[in-house]
Amino acid sequence: KSPYIWCADTGACAAFSEWPDVDEGVTCGSCMALVKTEPYGGRCDKYCESFGHTCVYAAEEIDENCEVMENYLCSEEIKETSDMLCVCHAAPS
Question: Which residue from 27, 59, 65, 76 has the highest number of Cβ atoms inside 10 Å of its Cβ?
Answer without folding.
Answer: 59
